[in-house]
Amino acid sequence: MRRILFLVFFFLYMSLTGTEKNAIISGNVIDKHGQAIAYANVFIVETMEGTVTDKVGNFHFESKNVGIINLRITYMGYASYEKKIHLQPGKHYQYKVRLEEETVQGKAITITASSYIASNEEGTTLTAMDVIRTPGAAADLFWAIKALPGVQQAAEGAGLFVRGGDVTETAIYLDGALISHPYKYESPTGGFFGSFSPFLLKGTYFSSGGYGAQYGNGLSGVLAMESLDMPAEATYGFGIGLAAESAFISLPVIKGKLGVSVSGNLSNTKMLFKLNGSAERFTRTPQSSDLNINAIARLSKYWQLKLFHFMQSDRVGVRVEDPDNPGVFENDAKNRFTHAVLQGVLPGDWLIIVNGGVSRYSQHPRMAAMNFNMHDDLGQFHINIEKGWGDLHIKAGTEMLDYTTTINGASTRDDDNTDPDADAFIFDTNYQARKFAAYLSIDVPVGAFKFIPGLRSTYDNQADQLVIDPRISIVYGLSMNWTVTAALGQYHQTPNPRYYDEHIGNPDLGYSRARHAIAGVQFDKDGTLFRVEAYVKKYDNLLLHDLGYRYINEGYGYARGIDAFLKSKYKTFSGWLSYSWLDAKRCWMDLPVVVSPYFDITNNFTAVLNWEATVRLNFGASFRAATGRPYTPSADAFQSKRVPPYIKLDLTVGYNTCLFGSDMTILYASCSNVLGRTNIMNYSYSSDYTQRVAVKSAFSRQVYFGFQINF
Amino acid sequence: MKKQLIVVCIFCVMVFNITLTAQSDGGALIIKGRCQLEEAVEKWDEAPLMSARAYFERMIGKTEHDAWTLYYIALAESKLAGYHFANQAMDDAKPYVDGGIQHLEESLKIKPDNADALALLSSLLGNKIAFDPMLGMTLGPKSGRLIGEAFALEPNNPRVSFIAGQSAFYTPEMYGGGRDIALKHFVKAVADYKNDKPSDLLAPVWGKVDAYLYQGICQMDQKLNDEALASFNYVLQIHPTHAWITQALLPELKKRMAELDVE
Question: Which of A165, A325, A575, B82 is 20 to 30 A off residue A659, Cα-Cα?
């Protein structure tokens, strides 16, 4: 009996423990840099046996299995490793395994070639605070964007000259509506400041090329701004600086249902220029005022209506340096923009955004024999729809733009003519044009690739031409942190309406065309962003003055270059470096041969550094250096020389506190052009090229200070 | 007789072995993993959470309950995302949010009427919006629709109410959220937890303590101090050293109550 019981317990014991020793599987898991991978899952596919690696990547477990098994090692973001093993009892199997980073299938790829995003959201290129804190940017979005690669320091002011393109070749949008006059103190090189305060904006997308089919009528770049959302709580504040006063109020009128934000700015630079000693340059120092009203109504859970009204006026009188006829240029301008956006979700989860609006820009420029009034009216209507199926995303839209331009008064053939006795002609024209466009764009992820093909078609009744622009953007996720981008695309732009005028232009003008090819690589990890891109652009059908001083579509040219951008943060320091190399040549406008246009700035370098010395005190510095712009030193040597390099160092200091029971009080002071360098922006020559006058930068060393209080 | 006894004993050994084999299969494996995940959440450390996730990952394809296996992988990933969120390591949290969404979508392909999976997916989509608010316009409605479907399937599922409450808690009022709405969901969740008797043994059982915690926070907001104290005390009965409650919430609540007493 005892023997029987022994036998039973022996069977029981053996069945539970087995008679043979287990196989031992151990080893270490590393990445391609030799760094240990902690918590990788190491297991036998055929069973539940396995473990996870420890903090130094080691693993060790025993297996009761015998025979051929598959050992698998997985870790999120890495390609899984698998190996067949012939397991034998009692044996020890050791492995050192290197996991390769996965070609991020399914990873949401939001970047595309040449795009930058400015907002407060995570993963963006520039935050709103970067915009405000960029020394020398005067809290102006356009100035801050000029510190990004691909934007040339071709002129002072806010004008965006992108990758060898003229300022008029960058399309500017607000809430999906085209802004035809986005600058204050507008000039042929853009304007001195942008019209929209960064405090009014929720986010900004800037593309220096290769942008998608959603955007049109820009040969070089796109800046798309989005206005603020509904205020969550009542806030108000005001600011006073040496040259400006501003105030704002945001109210949730019906909490969660209706919100209103109103802001206004008054700017008078008289004190600024008087204090800094350059007031004599102006007959009327620059002055401006603006008022913005933004109302948002939540109509239902998924429907929202946003209304935006903006009005601005500015005036300036500046002495024009000209060896033959020193003169005075004066201008008064008014800008109005009213826009409504209705967005919601249709059955089937289609997102729809319908927007429409009207804008009017009026100006009264005068200089010597030139004196005219111009009104630019633009009415527009857009419908956009989009829907996602997993990672597949489709976007489509249509738009109608109606332009009316009236000009009456006297003008010379040449805008820069300062001779009061120059031949002027009287004109009274009323020009109208209507554009229709439609686009389709699809995000197609295929493994680690993301393809964004798109088509945009545009019809312009003045050009009486239908053009179709194919575009494609390709993104390849090399790893979790490295991304390769490429873009190809065709872009058309119609001339400014006034070039169709029969007196100063040509009613038969057609589209200008650009073709972009871009390739680049980006690294993005833990707040460090590095990007380098190369591009080639070909232009044709550009506007060109013919011998009869009419415009024709026979200009052409190219631009090629390399852009590099590095943004990072270390402890209390943050900042970015930006460098662009550019080679651009054009036969265009008044340049009858292929030469460097004035915006062919070969080297552009910007360094921006911010230091949070304490929680309240911060310092900022920015350094900009750029090759001097080309100029024409004689009648037969077009654009053959360059002005001296542009160099500017700006410093700011800010102190945050809470005065008078406010939520936030910012005291700030800045010094622009600390080095006191006289940057020469151009030379103005006499008609026979025997005398010249240097056109100097408006920024001598300048000090500015002020405060902002928010409640 | 001896021979009979030998046969009986050998039969017992065989039956014992078969029982062990059955327990290491299917549902038992999931229940074991569920316990491991609960312990990991209690320890609130990366290593046990990763181990729990790894355990479920090893289980894929090995039982007839892959819908639940995928759900629990996603649940572990949502906890890992929460762990990294709490440590401000957003880059580390992101892959777990994406992974969780992917696993839940796979789970729902197998078992489309799983209210727990629908609710958790809704929650993870909300997390994804937090990374990229521009996605809100497309993912927001989808997230809302999913929680609606979950409610329609199981109106008294406490985790659905809890997730709806969390979503409202972290959503600004202007987007349909707010703590008033959140409190209603948490109160319902707490009531539903008391009567929670899942018909499926493999269904999740998490969230009760968190429902009391969030209920307490919302009650504090509404100045329902006694109710908030009761909610926190419930949590403290289970986790006497709960850091958030003992170091932040309770002192603040007691300070308020003392001020009221003085008045």
Answer: A575
Q: In this structure, are A404 and A449 located in the same domain? A: yes
Interface test with A, best of B6, B30, B174 (most A CBs within 10 A): B174
Per-residue pLDDT reduced to its tens digit, A38-85: 999 999 988 889 999 998 999 999 988 877 788 999 998 787 888 878
B95 touches chain A (CB under 8 A): yes
pLDDT at B11: 42
- Residue in chain A closest to B100 (alpha carbons) equals A76
Do A450 and A566 lie in a common domain?
yes
| Strands annotated E in A179-243 | 183-184, 193-194, 201-207, 221-227, 235-241
On whether both A67 and A164 belong to a single domain, the answer is no
Distance from B22 to chain A by nearest Cα, in Å? 14
Which of A73, A98, A123 marks a domain boundary?
A98
Q: How high is the pLDDT of residue B71?
A: 96
Residues A617 and A641 in one domain: yes
Residue A105 lies in a domain: no
A to B CB pairs, distance under 8 Å: 105
- Contact state of B102 with A106 under an 8 Å Cβ cutoff: yes
Whether residues A297 and A361 fall in one domain: yes
Closest residue of chain A to B49, computed from CA coordinates: A39
Q: If you count them, how many residues does chain A have? A: 711
Whether A564 and A657 share a structural domain: yes
CATH number for B145: 1.25.40.10
B60 inside domain: yes
Two structure tokens written together for A113: 């070639």
**Number of domains composing chain B:** 1
Residue A393 has a pLDDT of 86
| Maximum mean pLDDT: which of A447-451, B51-55, B167-171, B196-200 | B51-55
Asked if B10 has any chain A CB less than 8 Å from its own CB, the reply is: yes
Neighbours of A59 (CB within 10 A): 21
- A48, B24: Cβ pair inside 8 Å? yes
Last residue of a domain, one of A42, A72, A98: A98
Q: Is the ipTM of this complex over 0.90?
A: no
- Identity of the residue in A48, A77, A387 whose CB atom sits nearest the CB atom of B95: A77
Domain residues for the domain of B58 are 47-153
Contact B143/B181 with Cβ under 8 angstroms? Answer: no
Task: Please indicate, yes or no, whether residues A194 and A288 belong to a single structural domain of this protein.
Answer: no
Span B142-164, mean pLDDT? 92
Residue A101 has pLDDT above 80, yes or no: no
Residue B27, exposed/middle/buried by CB under 10 A (0-12, 13-18, 19+)? middle
The percentage of residues in chain A with a pLDDT greater than 90, rounded to a whole number, is: 39
